[in-house]
Structure formats: C-alpha cells, structure tokens
Amino acid sequence: MYTVTVRDHMMxxxxxxxxxxGPAQRLHGxxxxxxxxxxxxxxxxxxxxxxxxxASETLRDVLGALTYRNLDDEPEFAGINTxxxxxxxxxxxxxxxxAPALGPVTSLLxxxxxxxxxxxxxxxxx
Length: 126
Description:
It is built from two helices and five strands; from the N terminus they run ββαβαββ. The protein is an alpha+beta fold.
C-alpha cells in the first residue's frame, strides 16, 4: 500500500453544548494542523499515487470552506458539536468526494492536530 500525505491548517470558531465541555461551551477559536494521508495499492502510469501539488490544492480548497468561520453559524452544523472528531470526518468526507480525480487512491486518513499533544483522526475507504 502506498501513502502520500499532505498538510495544511484551518482556523475556526465554535462552541459546544454539554457540561462535559466545561469552559469550551463558550465561543472559542481553534487552529488545527490537518494531515490528509491518501493511500492506494498501486501507482498510476506516471509512477505516482497522486500529484502532491494537486492533493495540496484539494486539501486547501476543502479547508477553505471551513476556515475563518464560526461553525455555530453554519447550517450544516446546526445542533452538532463540532468536535475535532466530527471535523476530521467532515474533512475526510469532502476529500473522498474529490480523491478519485487525483489518482488510484482507495482510502484516506485525515488527522486534525489540536496541539502538539492531542489529535483526532477519521479513516475511510472506497
């Protein structure tokens, strides 16, 4: 299995509902470093799994739709706690829609790093 990983970042604002979140129930900001690891069992005719530049642009486009937004105001997240896990799935789903155009990719792992100490990931394949 081959894997190519690209990295970018996004900055969002949001709040959470539920006592488990303590002070994070108030509006706050978060900056995530985002890794997208694209995998597939074979290389394309050019000897690559995908073009790193195109993969980077695709990740930037997906994150651009989320960054500098208050996710509490976005209709698609109404009533949802936009936890790191939920955002990892959202980014992975949006990338997966575009991944087949990038090359012979069959799976994807998206990791959102909250800090140098904590991260959450979501994996999917097709």
